[in-house]
């Protein structure tokens, strides 16, 4: 089993082996993350609830593989951004989850869908 640091090293090696760092600007990597997210969303576009249930119940291996592929593409973009900016994505993710745990106190939101703006966003 790998942790996120191992995955970050794999992404770094992939980029360095191909000498692609010079092309991987933060602008392009962030746009790539968005494009890959759109490719994931396209799988579900105009599909009904039955489609989602079929996927959730592992009833369509071909689509399941496409989803895995797009989610991995998104992860690669995130890992590449972390590599380019030289930060530890695992630590950043844990910090984000700590923030979300505080913002969405389980005793206040359990079973409810509510949006609570982050203190950073409320000042903009
Ligand atoms: Mg893709």
Describe this structure in words.
72% of the residues lie in helices and 0% in strands. It is mostly helical. It has a domain at 4-87: MazG-like (Helix Hairpins), CATH 1.10.287.1080. Helix 2 runs antiparallel to helix 4. The relative contact order is 0.13. Bound molecules: magnesium ion. Magnesium ion (MG) is lined by residues 36, 39, 70, 73.
Biggest sheet details: none
The CATH homologous superfamily of the domain at 4-87 is termed: MazG-like
Query: End-to-end distance, in Å?
Result: 41 Å
Tally of helical segments: 7
Order of helices and strands: HHHHHHH
Quick structural overview:
The chain is 72% helix and 0% strand.
SSE map:
Blueprint: H1 4-17, H2 26-44, H3 49-56, H4 61-85, H5 89-103, H6 106-109, H7 119-122
This protein binds magnesium ion.
Question: What distinguishing features does this structure have?
Answer:
124 residues; mainly alpha; Helix Hairpins; 7 helices; globular; binds magnesium ion
